[in-house]
Amino acid sequence: MAASGKSALLRHKDLQRAWCNPPGWGRLAAVNHSIIGRRFILTALAFFAIGGLLAMLLRAQLATSRSAFVGPEIYNQFFTMHGTVMMFLFAIPLFEGLAMYLLPKMLGSRDMAFPRLSAYGYWCYVLGGSILVVALAIGYAPDSGWFMYTPLSSKPYTPGINSDVWLIGITFVEISAISAAVEIAVSILRIRTGGMSLQRLPIFAWYMLVTAFMILVGFPPLILGSILLEVERAFGWPFFDPTRGGDPLLWQHLFWMFGHPEVYIIFLPAAGAISTILPVLSRQRLIGYSWLVASIIALGFISFGLWVHHMFTTGLPHLSLAFFSAASLLVVIPTSVQIFSWLATLVMGRPQLKLPMLYILGFFFVFVMGGLTGVMVGVVPFDWQAHDTHFVVAHLHYVLVGGFVFPMLAAAYYWLPRFTGRQAQHRLGLVAFWLIFLGFHGTFFLMHLTGLRGMPRRIFTYPVEMNWDVLNLISSMGSFVMAAGFALFVVDIILQLRFAPRSCRNPWQADTLEWTVPGPVPLYNFAALPHIRSRYPLKAQSGLALKLATGDGYLPEVRHGWMETLSVDMVSGRPDQIVLLPKPTYLPFFAALATAVFFLGALFKIYGLALAGLATAMTLFLVWAWHSGLQRDYGALPAGLGLSLPLHAETERPPAWWAMAFTLVADGTMFASLLFGGIFLLVVTPGEVQPAIASGAAMWLDIVIIGLLAGAVFAMRRTVRAVATPAPRQRLIGIAFVQQLLAAALLVYLIRAAPDAKAHAVHALSTAMLWYLALHVMVALVMTGFTIARGRCGYISATRSAEPRILLLWYTYVALAGLIGLALLRLISPVAP
Amino acid sequence: MLPLLGTGCDGPLSSLDPASPQASAVADLWWIMLVGSGLVFLLVMTLLTLAFTSARRYLRRPHAIYILGGGLVFPATVLSVLLAYALFTGERLLADPARPAALRVQAMAAQWQWTFRYASGIEMSDRLVLPAGQPVDIAISSQDVIHSFWIPRLGGKIDALPGRIHVMRIISEQVGTYAGACAEFCGLNHAGMYFTVEVVPLAEFETVLRQAMDETRSN
Ligand code: HEM
Ligand SMILES: [Cu+2]
Ligand SMILES: [Cu+2]
User: Fold this and answer.
1) Is A372 in Cβ contact with B71 (below 8 Å)?
2) Over chain A, what is the mean pLDDT?
3) What CATH number is given for B103-218 in this structure?
4) Which of chain B's residues have a Cβ under 8 Å away from the Cβ of A315?
5) What is the pTM (predicted TM-score) of this model?
6) Is residue A491 part of a domain?
7) Side-chain half-sphere CA neighbours of A420 within 13 A
């Protein structure tokens, strides 16, 4: 046995010493998933309070037709900020926090794959969110609605800073969504414990995996759109300006390519919580595990084919209306599969009406209604009436509150004993439930009728002749009941944190690994990592918690003060690496501060400052990367249970390689969105003359650039092959560097030779494409320089070959993007003089 | 109960108080979908409630009945029928561009008013006069930001986009006065961007139009 006779307490002390986190200011250096996850959750709840307060103010204003409590200037900021805060600063970060906190404990690991990235994402979220909240406090908040339609949000119609606050603040926050998605995907696929094959993955992890990929593909169109709109506002490049060949509909497409999947991105983690909680409280294993996995993957795909249903009134061709209407109804099917699996689980089991279950029933009631009104608005002729009325406001709240808030409340009560180590108590929670549930229906049920009786959304007042007074008054009263319910929920949680008695380790008799973690939760989660032999390890492997405490599992010993966890083969769950996790560090915090300087510089148009911020952030990232890796080989090390494994730095594909691959998925989607924009302007935008936008340069320049990029790929492939012999390796990297340098110079020349981007949207788009390529080549240069330095300092060897391999991924991507991007430019501008 | 909520379904902007064949078709669609959804909702809620009683014994059926039957076959059937009906209704509502209506009115939106221009050169703000019983094509566009043209009692809405013209065909059968609104958020005075529509007998159309024009001028 691996337990080398050491007592559980000594083992705990050793681990504690290796994993400890400095107190005081040192908290800013925390990178541990339990700490960061908790911070995400608490911050998201604070934003929920802000969004909720705004909702109360909206409802107070709408209560009667004579309310004169705010004017349209303020009302417009309020509803824009309410929607923005709820979607970007509450919902997404809340489930990210929950995932960070829970996933490692469910997957039997000691942390997420990239703890420093979690911390960086958290600080970006807090700082970006603060930009928006400060703007609200001083009266400069965005006021064009949460989907920021152009031209209303563009310079001529919103000359102030309001739109810039949205574009820049939200893009900043989105860094945290993308980084969390990369991290969640890599952690679920690679950072699990031994024996946990894909078939044994807890269902929550499947949901989060699909969610993570949806974020990687769903967010880039909005990030791109925001950058383009900000460039339009700041420098006059007319992407969306119809007077100069741009198209406001292009913005709508980019927004909803993000916006629709976003709704499912919010729903899936909540559904994952239900699929976890409902079977436990029904004392019945989840029925239809494989069907659920198939249906959420299907949901992930289908949800990217629906965005146009938000644009049914924009005068699109009949055929596309029919297609997107059909697709919108199709997405009901994977959702029904889930609903009926849950029903089957309830019916086959012996469900207990505990408080989390009550919230799940609330979810069923509210969400099913929201789904049904969703089918209605997916039907085109009906949507022509309902669109942009309070019917839609009611529908979206049934879906979001039903599909996210109720499940999250269930999750809160279910996992609270896990967070606090205290027993669950349910008296106040019951009252809170009824206040929230009844208040919710009071607010939103009759609002469907208000909408059908013609009340448009986003109006700050309405004429008394419209007969909407009574309905609105009921809604406003309902919302105050609901607010009281949420307040009571908060009080209840605080009371439980302070006064509830200690709980036993697994109060719900659950069957997932997080309930083997002792409470209060140690930063390292498990004294030893379990070997899993079933999807329901707590049921199948009795006495597991005790075994782990005594070191009977993987990685039971601390060596060199390292923080270790396992990495496994993606499919079979066979352990294949020991991952060394980073110690607490201030780097993520300072890197986020530098990033904030960049965004603030852009916001206030002090571009020198912005560049300085960017340069500082880049430097900090390089320092951060420098601290990873090893300068010597350790070979295979004992990993417990008789297994010996290499350290991750001594493998070809450590987690960082996968992180790069998934980052490129997001980057590629952004590139595809840019291509979409070019083709859209060419094909769909009305306007007879497509200006000849000769780049001013001859075709052979394109060919030379592509040749150089391809040559660099070739040199890098040979570098990877020659990795064992330092001299040829360093020479080959040098060659690649020179090739990238020349390509960068030529791209910059093309940018300078390009026609004036302000003159026409197509010019603007071509120049944006050239910048995209040039920036990617410049990043390649920086990374290549870094790798050369790493090679000099002995970080690269025959076994430690991951860095050139990661670089090769980037090179290949850049070469492909160059080929496609330059070809598109030739398509838009076929002849060069 | 309904009267208490402010006289049931009517109101100047109520889509549930239709006054044209198009608006009626959509209102019918709504009532059908409401009943259908009500039944589906009841079904799910009944299953859910029974699961918490001892009656769940009778509901224990093979898993496939739930997952394939309830999750797949049931929604697929219901939704196909709905989709077919909706597409059919939609096609009936849309103007056939090949056969333009006899009368065409230009509706130009701007922050924050509507300007209606007739072929005869007559132009009015926030006031639209239409002949009863005759199809009219409204050509909708915008001078600045996006607005949306909507007369709920006569039919659905369509966006007014700068740089594009969208045509909506209206057939108003009942003489009377209707209200219209801008449905797309368009800035500060979005809440005040209403207009009125007067549907007059065909024979009186020209005279009423001229009168209306004069009234607008003298204001
Ligand atoms: C807690 C109770 C809530 C109340 C009383 C409430 C109330 C409202 C009201 C009155 C509006 C419409 C304003 C208008 O169109 O004039 C609105 C819009 C909206 N709400 Fe809520 N809301 C609540 C919770 C939420 C939650 C939890 C979410 C999302 C997770 C959310 C997302 C939105 C969005 C996206 C909009 C659209 C904003 C826009 O039109 O730009 N709301 N809400
Ligand atoms: Cu959607
Ligand atoms: Cu408007």
Assistant:
1) no
2) 92
3) 2.60.40.420
4) 158-159, 161, 164, 166
5) 0.95
6) yes
7) 21
